[in-house]
Amino acid sequence: MDLEDFLRLHGADLDQLVEGAQAVAPMQPGDRLIAVGSLAEGLGNRKSDVDLLLVTPRREHGGASPDEVLSFAVGQCIVDMRIVPAALASGLRSRLGTWAQGGWNLMTPSDFNAGELLLLHRLGAGLRLWCAPEAEVDEEDARLEEDIARLKLHVARHLARTLQVDMVGYCEVGDHQSMVYSAQDLLGHAVDGLLAGFRLTNPTPKWRSRLLDRLPADWESRLVLRPSGLRPSDLVWRLHRAPAEPTAAACLEHACRIVTFARAAFVWAEDSLVHAGAEGGRRYVWPQLPVGSGEHPLPFLALDVDFSRTEEGVVVGRLNEFGETLHMSFDDFAVMLLFDNATTAREAALVIEQSNGVEQFVHKVRRSGFDLAA
């Protein structure tokens, strides 16, 4: 349900909504009234809240202080309107622009708290209801959406890497239940990264499943991932389902399946948002091959195997380890992404169009001393 449908259901319309806002905080040139939240993004229902932002350069609005929330009734619904100082909004956007111009560094967290992430999203995705006729649309609006998507991906990637290291520790001490819980948290961050790649920037976890259903029908063909044929929300539901019993083998497989999905999602999202579409436009076609006798699937990668893009290709290593790293082409790395305990070497070779053969590549990796498998 969107905002207009909701208002109609409650005996009101957009004009009455703007009039109600004007009555409690008269608007002047320089002000902007923005509808935000689930209704503004078409995610609402009849129990949703009507949320507005009034961005203003003035110190007071009819007695209302900056950052105050005013409530008023329109028809049969209650509206909450937050007064946002224009200096706060512009300062936040300026910080985001400065951050976006910096290098892509996953070692440190971005300097934005949860409230700032939500406000940035709402400023970028909100529905503008009123601004003075002479007010110009900010030229940075188009860039704002892209920068917010990059920020959402960065937050997801940074937190996911921490969880990958945690899971290895849980596995080593036999705490398999905690490993499963961490894997499920990581899955949520992987979904955030995937959504960011499609410029769906709402940071609120409760909307992940609904937003997944907005992905295009060919979403799986963009990822180096064995296709499931499922809707994205259905695939994530299956990945999230914990094993019936917390045995070591079942928990490790559960965690490996999630991390395999996460790597594929993050690779595509980074290529789409950070690396100028390096491989983000590729589509992967899967062959229909019968499994030959004696063929075995490629194993899972270790839980903490991660990647970093370079101008020459990809660097692969273990997080929080000081051992060997591998420098490889993207096609070789794509083969590694298909180490999923289901895909055979022959399938991987055809999907990635390897000319030198996957078995030789696997042998080369193992000879390097890099600890590949889970």
Number of helices: 12
Average pLDDT value? Answer: 89
Termini separation comes to 45 Å
> What is the CA-atom radius of gyration, in angstroms?
24 Å
Shape: elongated
Q: Which H/E pattern describes the elements?
A: HHEEEEHHEHHHHHEEEHHH
Largest sheet data = 5 strands, mixed
Strand content: 5-15%
- Work out the number of β strands: 8
Oligomeric state: single chain
Which structural class is indicated by helix and strand composition? alpha+beta
Helix-residue proportion = 40-55%
The poorly predicted ranges are none
* Biggest sheet strand line-up: 3-4-2-1-5
What does this structure look like?
45% of the residues lie in helices and 12% in strands. It contains 12 helices and 8 strands. Helix 3 packs across helix 5, helix 5 runs antiparallel to helix 9 and helix 6 packs parallel to helix 9. The chain starts with a helix and ends in a 7-residue tail after the last helix. The mean pLDDT is 89.
Helices, strands, pairings?
Elements: H1 3-9, H2 14-24, E1 32-36, E2 50-56, E3 69-74, E4 77-85, H3 86-101, H4 114-125, E5 127-131, H5 141-173, H6 176-197, H7 208-212, H8 232-240, H9 248-273, E6 305-309, E7 314-318, E8 326-328, H10 330-337, H11 345-352, H12 358-367
Parallel strand pairs: 2-4
Antiparallel strand pairs: 1-2, 1-5, 3-4, 6-7, 7-8
